C-alpha cells in the first residue's frame, strides 16, 4: 500500500465510536469497577468471561430491529461470527450450554459492540462497557429480585451518590393488566406499552396523541390508561392499586400486584424501600421481560428541562447530518442500553423465558440488572471536577520516590538508590527512583511531585556513611517541623516508611483518588434510608 | 431462518478457538491477573485501554507473514477495521497519537485475536489474553531494561514459582556482531538468526544442517557460529566474550556487550542476576527488536524430551489434518506469542524504532515484556491440582451464611435472616442466606458447604427472644469445644463475625484460594536469589 515510502500515509486515529482510555479517566473507571465488583462479591457473586464474538446465529433473532446494529466479522473462511451486542444473550447461551448449572449469581464487566451512530452528546459509543449482574435459578418469589435492588443501592451508595438516585420500578404483569382493564386490543399491547414508556420525557398530551393518532387507539381507552400510568408513589400507591376492584379482577394485574407487595415487604427488611419509586409509566423496551422491571435515574442522568432540550436538538441535528441514523434516532428510547435515551444509569428486570430460547426445553428463570458504566463514569468525573474538596486523582499509586543528592564529586549514588528501591519492593511498598545515573535533586523532586508521590527517601553520602537516610513527607506546609525531612536509621527503613504510609491513612490506593469511592468506603457502604 | 418453529436448529457452542471462562478457572485466572497487576503498580505503572478493533491499515505491515492471521470486521459501510493482533502495535499507535506523552510505564491486560489453527496441545487459541508491560521514554542506558527483569522476577515469585523459572537473555547487537564476525553475508543475517533460535529444541547438528543446506551458508561460517551460539552462562560467560578480541573489534558486538555488562551490574543490585542465563542462541522472532531480548522458561513450560516429542508429533498431525495449517505450523517457533512454540511463559525485549513507524518522525525508545497468561494459568492450575497441601479453591468469597432453624410451627424467620444479612453487608461482610421462606436446616448447611463458606450465623426463636444468635465455624473436627457453635449477643454480631474472620487469617479472599498467590504473599514477594 505504498507505506514503505511514505510511512504515515493513513490517518492516525481509533475507529469511529471507539476511544482510548488513559490517565485519570482510567483511574476513575477502574475505581468504579472495583467498587461495583466489591458489592457483587459481598453478595456471593462469581464472574464468567465469554468470548468477544459469538456465532452469528446465536445473536440472530434476539434484538428485533436493533439486529442491524450488530457487528459481523468478515467471512475469512470457517464459521460466521459477530461481536457481542450485550452480555445477557451470551449469558443465556452459556446457561443453556451448561445444563448442570441450575442456579448462579454471576457478574460480567466487559465491552459490547453496536454499529450505532455515535453520539457524544448522549455518551453513545460503538464500543462501550456493560456491567451486568444476574441471578439465575428457581427460588421463592421476589427474594432474588429484592436482593438485586439492595445490591443496586449498595453500589450507588459506595459510589458516593447518597440520596442522589431513584430506582423507578414497575411490573410487566401490572402494566399488561392495566392495558387489558382499560380495553387495549391484544395486538396493540406492545406498541401502547412503548408509547407509555415515553412519559418520562414527554407530557401526557403528547403520548396520548401518539396513542390515538398513529397507533389508532380509542380516545376513551387512552384516557383510562392516562389515569393509571401517570401515577407514581410508594407503598401508598401500591395499596391504592390493590384496592382497585377492576384491577384486582384482572389475573395479570392481581399477580403483579401480589409480587410487588411481597417485594416492598422485602425491600423494607433490606432498608431500601425509600430509594424505590413505583412508576406506572415505566415499561422498558425489551420484549423479554416477564416480571418486575426497574431503571435507576439520578439528578445527573436525566436531562434537565433546558439542557434536555439542548441535548434533544443536538440529537436531531446529528440524525439529520447522517441519513443512516434516522431510524436509529427514532429508536433511541427503545434501546436496552441503559446509558442511552432516558438517561438511566442502570436498568433491568426479570426475564424467565430467555434461556429456553437456546435450550429449547430447559427453563431457567432469571432476573438481572445492567449498569451503564460509561454514564456513571461521566457523572462521577463531573462531580469530582466540581468538588473542590475531592482529593486530586493520581494516575499511579507510588508511595515513595527514592532520591539522592550531593555536592561536588557527587556520583549519583545509583547502586544505593537501587538497593533501597529493592528493599522497599521486597517489603511490598510501591516505589520509584530516577532512571538517571546522576539525577539532579530538583528533577527528582519534580518527578515525584508530578505524580503526587507522598514520600521521598533521600540518600546522601554523609548520611549513608552514618547508616542513615532522610525521609520526607511531600507537600508539608512551611514551618512544619518535618518540612525538611527527618533522619532515620537506614536499617529500619521499611518499618519507618510503612508506619508513615499507615498514618497517612492507608496506602495511596485507599486514601487518595476518588472522593467517597475508596475501597474502605465501599466496605462500609450502608444505605441510610428506609 | 426458520428458528421460530424449531428453536434450536443451530449448534449451541462458542466459536472455534474461543472458550468460556468460569468457576475455579476464572478464580485462578483472576488471582494471577491480580498478582501481576500488584507488581506492576508497585513499580509505578499505569494502565491504558485501547479498542478491541483498530483501523485495518494500522495493523497492516506490522506482522510480516502472520498478517494473514488478522481477523477483519465485515465491511458493513464505513471504516475497515480489524481485531487487534497484539497489544504492542496499539500501544505504539497510542504513543504516536499522543505526542505530549514522552515517557510512560504502562501495563495492559486484554484479549488479542489470531485466526490461527487452534491447537489445544499447545494452548493455542484464537482469542487469548496477553499481559503486557512496557516502558517508553529516553533514560540512561539499561536502567528500564533492568527494572523489567526485576519486575518479571517479582511476578513469578509472587505466583509461587520460586526457583522454578529462568530468564534467558541475549542482545540483538551481540548476535549481529557474532554473525558478522563469523562471516555471515548481510542478506542472510535474519534467516541465520532464526535458525539459531531453534537451538532450544533442536540439537546443533540439525541447526547446522539447516544453515548449510537450505540456507546455503558456508560450512566454516556455520562452525564458527556454532562455537558462539551454543554457549550459556552468567557473568563468567559475559567476561569471556568481553575478552574475545575479534568480537570486541566489531562495533555492534562491542556495544551489545557493554550494554550487557551494565545490565548485569544493575541486575546484581536488584538481586536477580542469578535468575538470568545469558543464552547466545536466543534470537526471538520479531524483527523490531533492537537491543536486549529475553524469554522466561520454567520447568513446566519447556516440553521435556519425551513429552516434547509427543507434543511435536501431535502438532504435525494437526498440521497434516488441516492443509491451511501447514505454513502456520512451520511458523510456530517464530511466533511472537509467548504462549506458543518453545514454551516460554513470558518474552520481550527492546524496540526503539516501532513508534516512529506511526509517528513518521518522533522516536520513542521502548522496552517491554509480554506474559503468556494462558500458559501461566495452565501451569499454575496443574501445580494446584497436584499439590495436596493447597487450600481448596472457592468460586465465591462469602464469609457467612445466615441460617435459621426451629421446631414445630417454625416460620422460617425470613425477616430476621434478611435483617441479619443486611447488618453484615452494612459492615462490609460477605454474606448470603437461603432464598426460601422456610428453608430446612440441612439444605442451608449444604448450600454453605458447597461453596466452602467458613462461618454460619444461626437464628432460632428462643435465641432471638433472648437477644442472641449462634455463630459456628464450619468444618471443625469432632470434639472441638465450638463444634456445635457458640451463643453470642445479637447486638455485637458484626464485631463477633469480624474478629472470627480476622482470626482465621484475613477475609476468605486473602487466605483461601491459590497457594502462594494471595495478595499478602504478593506484597511480600522478594526474589531470594542474587
Describe the structure.
Two copies of one chain form a homodimer. Chain A has 530 residues and is an alpha+beta fold. Chain A folds into three domains: 230 residues, BirA Bifunctional Protein, domain 2 (2-Layer Sandwich); 97 residues; 112 residues, Rossmann fold. Helices cover 40% and strands 16% of the residues of chain A. Chain A has 21 helices and 16 strands. Chain A has a nine-stranded mixed sheet with strand order 1-4-5-11-10-9-6-8-7. Chain A has a five-stranded mixed sheet with strand order 13-12-14-15-16, sandwiched between helices. The longest helix of chain A is centred in the first third of the chain and has 20 residues. The radius of gyration of chain A is 28 Å and the shape is elongated. Chains A and B meet through helix 1, strand 1, strand 2, helix 3 and strand 4 of A and helix 1, strand 1, strand 2, helix 3 and strand 4 of B. Chains A, B: Its EC number is 6.1.1.21.
Backbone CA Rg of chain A: 28 Å
Which percent range fits the helix content of chain A? 25-40%
The CATH class of the largest domain in chain A is Alpha Beta
Contiguous low-pLDDT stretches of chain A (5 residues minimum) are 1-6, 302-342, 506-530
* The named CATH superfamily of the largest domain in chain A: Bira Bifunctional Protein, Domain 2
Q: Name the chain pair whose interface involves the most residues.
A: A-B, 105 and 105 residues
* CATH architecture classification name of the largest domain in chain A: 2-Layer Sandwich
Output the number of helix runs of chain A: 21
- Number of DSSP strand runs of chain A: 16
Lateral strand order in the biggest sheet of chain A: 1-4-5-11-10-9-6-8-7
Strand content of chain A: 15-25%
Distance between the termini of chain A: 66 Å
Per CATH, what is the topology of the largest domain in chain A? Answer: BirA Bifunctional Protein, domain 2
Sketch the major β-sheet of chain A: 9 strands, mixed
Overall spatial form of chain A: elongated
Quickly give the structural class of chain A. Answer: alpha+beta
Average pLDDT level of chain A: 85
Q: What's the oligomerization state?
A: homodimer
